[in-house]
Amino acid sequence: MREKGIKNAMAYHGGLDSESRVLIQQQFINGQLDVVCATSAFGMGINKENVRYVIHFHMPMQIESYLQEIGRAARDGRDSIAILIYSPGDEQLAYQLAEGELPDQYQIERLFAFLIDNRIQYKNLADRVEELSMICGFTEIQWRIVEDYLSNIEAVDYKIDKQSLLQLIENRLEVKNTKIKKMLAWVHTNECKRKAILEMFGEELQERPRNCCISCEINMDHYKETEPFSEQSLAAVDWKQELASILLMRERI
Q: Which GO terms describe its molecular function (predicted)?
């Protein structure tokens, strides 16, 4: 980006420490960063009026997530644009992520073998979380699904409970895959994108704007930056003091 003249750009991801994440958020909100390349988690809680572009490099797993993420743009009412970059096969990443969020059959088999061998009751699982996660290879999300299911069972029947949990996981994966297919169908549709989204939520398109979507008529030149990116110095704010104040405020909350 810097080679293209965009000097004030940063990357935001899960590998950053808490202070770095807060710093990037505040620099962006205060107009000292022009572009942030980030995971979808960055947009949560960001309320910045003049976001002009939201560009997706990867296809979201469901249309609801996509709408929420592009909704960060144009909060000041001015024209903004959402761009989704797609190449055939990109959906495979979404399918892999959906499957990875759920425990697989091997993990569930390991879990119940351990429970049976040690005669562990479901109500006592909270004391063995770290041990079970290591033995079964659960991620935090996978464990929450397992724990939530077993914590609502009163009478323990390992065989029946295992089959029921496997069925639950299969059903959830089917729902996730269906959402991905709907998202993919929307990407590929040649009809009005705006109209298709509204129809998904039981609404009708009342009026089509001049620059509607790629399937209708849209002038991309309308969205090109006419002013140079901000050259505002990052040193204009004492970020050490600002960051300390923000973190201290969070601790008090």
A: 3'-5' DNA helicase activity; four-way junction helicase activity
pLDDT band, very low/low/confident/very high, at 108 (cuts 50, 70, 90): very high
Residue 196, judged by CB atoms within 10 A of its CB (0-12, 13-18, 19+), counts as: middle
* 169 and 176 Cβ atoms separated by less than 8 Å: no
Quick one: average pLDDT of 236-241?
53
Helix (H) or strand (E) holding 84, with range, is strand 81-84
Tokens matching residue 236: 């204009």
pLDDT tens sequence across 35-46: 999 888 786 767
CA distance 58 to 89: 11
**Could you tell me the fold of the domain covering 2-94+189-252?**
Rossmann fold (3.40.50)
Reduced to 3 states (helix: H, G, I; strand: E, B; else coil), residue 83 is strand
Residue 49 · residue 76 · CB < 8 Å: yes
Residue whose C-alpha is closest to residue 150's, from 112, 100, 118: 112
* Alpha-helix residue ranges (DSSP H) falling in the chain: 18-29, 63-70, 91-100, 105-118, 129-136, 140-151, 158-188, 193-200, 239-252
The per-residue pLDDT for 128 is 87
In this prediction, residue 218 has a pLDDT band, given cuts at 50, 70 and 90, of confident
Tokens 């202070």: give the residue. 19
Model's pTM, two decimal places? Answer: 0.80
Q: How far apart are CA 106 and CA 136, in angstroms?
A: 8
DSSP type of residue 119: T
Please tell me what DSSP assigns to residue 230: P
CA angle 235, 241, 246 (to 5 degrees): 115
